[in-house]
Specification:
The protein is α+β, with helices and mostly antiparallel strands and about 525 residues long. It is built from 14 helices and 20 strands. The longest helix has 19 residues.
Length: about 525
């Protein structure tokens, strides 16, 4: 049976808006359009109101979140939650169903616990990476390192719940989060793992518990609202060596991937290395390359090679690092030099190894991110009115498979959008990588925006023909991305929606998030 979804927009009644105001304060309920427009994806064409909200709520505590959810559950109000709302390029804080009430957790911005001895923190959803870093410094715990993403303005919790990538060793396969507190659709409170034992000192130390492991169920789902989370930290190492490795020619990409895989499997390269193509590398080296040309008409292969040669960044450049005792770092550096040297014409930039007490001397973007120093440096490389959307399949870490997928996505980008191909390969484990590819475009041009989204949808369907699926989807094509997970007549989707119907029978929490729809909006069922 073909299923259809009821996407009827929601309109918030005035009497229900007053109930929300009574629960969290009138000043924390924003219903006028100007205020709501501050909470949209800046990379969506602003003249298109498809994903508008009807209100934005700003609760300040778990208790206020519970109150909001209870009101919504009683009156059938759809809610869409974000932590900081910085999920730009994926829809930002915008909801899948027009008119949904947004719940922003920005006011829940407390670092609840710092445990120096066991190297972990507990944070609320409004805590940004920059906030956490500053709190560690303020409290004398700055010898602890956070595994951070490229931009430090987002939420630690929010980034985690969207499977956002971070780059230190705990970034591999999302090892850092541990133990969540979750408000369920009926307003009750759940603590996962060891947190289910009252006052457990092991809550944020052990990822499992007794019976099913629940933490992953709240990642990219719509089963609850996470109001606190544990996050593991690293101790600052005795030595830290940030590296930049080049791949001079396009045809050497597969060779580089195979070398990297072996270095990963041998434990020489840890963390989450990132390999980016020439155009994308402007985000790392604006002083050499100027602002990104990604939103311009596609350059020829010869033109891109010329830029790669003249700037010295190569057709591909990889950032990675080595952390540890000085003798170990030097030994691993030598192994990396020897292995990478097999790529003809390649280069390894290693300007300096930093000691534990030299962190304040790290000033460049690549060095900061891999040292756990959150920043906003990458924004300097992006021109005004330029946004991006992405398609990011997970691909086996072999040169042949990676080359096949990258070549496919580049061809689709150039042929269907006429724009430059932007891609970064995030090596999330020893065996796989996310090919974070996509379109960078002029957000003020409605036709260009439409072409960009149409092109990415084409990527979704054509990559699926090779067996690859999106790992994190924009709200505009969440359903299309979920549709590709079709094994067993969509057994995966039927299971996730069975869970949805059990824990949220009124379907109030983020309807449609990543293709998971509640029963009251499903017009036909998968069979």
């Amino acid at each position: 049976m073909t299923r259809t979804i009821d996407e009827t927009p929601y309109s918030l009644p005035d009497d229900v808006a007053r109930l929300f105001a009574e629960a969290i304060g009138t000043e924390h309920v924003h219903t006028d359009q100007a205020q709501r427009d501050e909470y949209r994806d800046p990379y969506w064409f602003q003249g298109d109101r498809t994903y508008d909200s009807s209100a934005v709520l700003y609760p300040a505590s778990t208790e206020e979140v519970q109150a909001v959810v209870r009101i919504a559950n009683e009156h059938g109000v759809p809610l869409w939650t974000s932590s900081q709302g910085r999920n730009n390029g994926y829809g930002g804080p915008s909801p899948r169903v027009r008119g949904t009430v947004l719940v922003s957790l920005r006011r829940m911005n407390r670092v609840l616990e710092i445990d120096h001895e066991l190297a972990y923190v507990v944070v609320e959803p409004g805590v940004t990476w920059i906030d956490l870093h500053e709190e560690l410094r303020r409290t004398g715990n700055d010898d602890l390192m956070i595994s951070v993403p490229d931009l430090g303005w987002g939420s630690v919790v929010g980034n985690t719940l969207d499977s956002g990538v971070t780059y230190l060793p705990y970034g591999m396969d999302y090892q850092a989060p541990c133990g969540m507190e979750v408000v369920l659709a009926d307003g009750t409170l759940l603590r996962t793992g060891m947190g289910a034992v009252p006052d457990s000192p092991s809550w944020h130390l052990y990822k499992r518990g007794l019976g099913p492991v629940l933490d992953p169920l709240f990642v990219q789902s719509n089963y609850g609202i996470v109001t606190r989370m544990g996050y593991w930290l690293h101790r600052r190492p005795a030595a830290y060596a940030p590296l930049f490795l080049t791949v001079p020619r396009k045809e050497q990409f597969g060779q580089a991937i195979d070398i990297l895989r072996e270095l990963r499997l041998d434990g020489v390269v840890r963390g989450v290395p990132v390999m980016q193509n020439t155009i994308t590398l402007a985000s790392h080296f604006p002083e050499v390359m100027g602002q990104m040309q990604a939103a311009d008409a596609a350059l020829s292969d010869e033109q891109i090679q010329q830029i790669a040669d003249e700037t010295g960044v190569g057709r591909w450049g990889m950032r990675t690092a080595v952390w540890g005792e000085p003798a170990v770092v030097e030994a691993h550096l030598e192994l990396i030099r020897k292995a990478w040297g097999a790529i003809e014409g390649s280069r390894i930039d290693h300007e300096r190894t930093y000691a534990r007490d030299e962190w304040d001397e790290i000033t460049d973007f690549v060095g900061k991110v891999q040292a756990g120093i959150p920043n906003l440096d990458m924004l300097e490389a992006l021109p005004d009115d330029v946004g991006h959307i992405g398609f990011s399949p997970v691909v086996p870490l072999t040169g042949g498979k990676m080359t096949e997928v990258v070549d496919l996505l580049e061809r689709i980008t150039v042929e269907e959008s006429g724009l430059n191909f932007v891609v970064g390969v995030c090596v999330i484990s020893e065996r796989s990588a996310m090919v974070v590819s996509g379109i960078t475009f002029d957000t003020s041009d409605e036709e260009v925006c439409a072409t960009a989204f149409r092109t990415v949808r084409s990527m979704v369907t054509q990559a699926a023909e090779l067996g690859y699926g999106e790992y994190r989807a924009h709200i505009d094509f969440m359903d299309l991305a979920a549709e590709q997970y079709s094994f067993g007549d969509h057994a995966y989707r039927r299971f996730t929606e069975a869970v949805k119907d059990a824990v949220d029978p009124n379907g109030i929490l983020a309807p449609g998030r990543h293709g998971i729809w509640p029963a009251n909006r499903r017009q036909g069922e998968d069979r």
